Structure formats: structure tokens, C-alpha cells
């Protein structure tokens, strides 16, 4: 019943539009061509329900909720976009870009370990590893020990301390969770 009501209202609006368009024409030469075009529009509006009925798909009767299921699946797919890995990657990219903007002569690689909760908008960051790539700086040779395991502690220079402080303030985590080293 709703389909017929919609079709009738569309037909009435079309007839009114056609009447107004026909009345606005001034020259008789144009009236003939415009009348033909407007008649085709009216005919298409009148035939549309018949064409829809002839192209009727019986599968819609079998499962009228299929579209709702598809919509639910699409929303589930969208939710999976905003999962833990996506949020960590986004946070890594934002932090990398901020570091690049602050220190333009250096390159950075950021890796964040932890979990992100989209629903609660919380981040549990366990560790942030930052690699500083400085083409201008001479890299120190690491001490090689054969036969013994040595606890490797990298001495932080002022630049690394400054970066660590900035990341600490940006992510609001303790400095113990931030590892920075030259690569």
C-alpha cells in the first residue's frame, strides 16, 4: 500500500512540475519540443512501478532481513578496522610525524607495545621503542664480548634525553617505558 501511495505522490508532483514548465514557455516553436520531452518524463514516472514489478526478485520474499544482516556485517567490518593493531599503528605514525616535525634533520622509527581499548578509549602502553636515524652522526662501535653475556646499557646523550622527555610528555607515560637508541 505504501508503494502505491509513494507512486501516486511522485506522479502528482511530476504533473505539477510539467504544468509549470509548460506554462513558462513563451515561444510556440519550443513548446512542441518541450511538450514531447515532458511527456516522456511523465510516461517514465507512470511506467516505473510496472517495470519494478516485472523485475521482481523472489529472493527478497524468502529473506526480508538479508539487507539488515548485510548492514550488520558491514558495521562489524568497520569495527574491525579500529582494532588494537590499527590504533597502535596510528599512534606510532602520529608520534613519528611529531618527532620528524620537531627534529627535522633526523629520521625516526617508532614501535609501541601494548593494548588499545576502543570502547573505553584507553591505551595500556607497556613499552615504546624509538630508533633515531641520524645520517650526520658518527655511529659508535658497540663493544663485542666473546664468551660472556654482558648487560648492554646505552649511554644517553642530551638529544636522546630530550626526545625521551618529549615522548614522555606526549604519551603521558613514565620514562622507564621508553627506549631510545641510535640506529
Question: Key terms for this structure?
Answer:
alpha+beta; 6 helices; GMP Synthetase, Chain A, domain 3; transmembrane helix; Spore_III_AF; 183 residues; Stage III sporulation protein AF; 15% strand; single chain; 2 domains; 3-stranded mixed beta sheet; membrane; transmembrane
Task: Describe this structure as you would to a colleague.
The chain has 183 residues and is an alpha+beta fold. The chain folds into two domains: 1-74, no CATH class; 84-182, GMP Synthetase, Chain A, domain 3, CATH 3.30.300. The protein has helices spanning 2-24, 28-54, 59-62, 66-81, 84-102, 158-171, and strands at 107-117, 122-133, 178-182. β2, α6 (158-171) and β3 form a beta-alpha-beta unit. The radius of gyration is 34 Å and the shape is elongated. The chain starts with a helix and ends with a strand. The relative contact order is 0.08. The model has no long low-confidence stretch (mean pLDDT 76).
Amino acid at each position: 500500500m505504501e508503494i502505491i501511495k509513494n507512486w501516486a505522490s511522485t506522479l502528482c508532483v511530476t504533473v505539477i512540475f510539467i504544468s509549470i514548465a509548460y506554462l513558462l514557455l513563451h515561444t510556440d516553436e519550443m513548446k512542441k519540443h518541450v511538450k514531447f520531452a515532458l511527456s516522456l518524463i511523465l510516461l517514465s514516472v507512470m511506467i516505473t512501478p510496472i517495470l519494478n514489478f516485472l523485475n521482481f526478485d523472489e529472493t527478497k520474499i524468502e529473506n526480508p532481513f538479508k539487507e539488515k544482516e548485510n548492514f550488520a556485517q558491514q558495521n562489524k567490518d568497520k569495527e574491525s578496522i579500529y582494532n588494537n593493531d590499527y590504533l597502535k599503528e596510528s599512534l606510532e605514525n602520529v608520534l613519528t610525524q611529531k618527532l620528524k616535525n620537531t627534529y627535522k634533520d633526523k629520521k625516526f622509527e617508532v614501535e609501541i607495545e601494548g593494548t588499545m581499548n576502543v570502547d573505553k578509549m584507553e591505551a595500556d602502553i607497556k613499552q615504546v621503542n624509538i630508533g633515531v636515524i641520524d645520517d650526520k652522526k658518527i655511529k659508535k662501535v658497540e663493544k663485542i664480548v666473546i664468551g660472556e653475556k654482558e648487560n648492554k646499557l646505552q649511554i644517553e646523550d642530551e638529544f636522546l634525553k630530550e626526545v625521551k622527555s618529549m615522548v614522555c610528555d606526549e604519551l603521558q607515560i613514565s620514562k622507564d617505558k621508553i627506549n631510545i637508541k641510535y640506529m
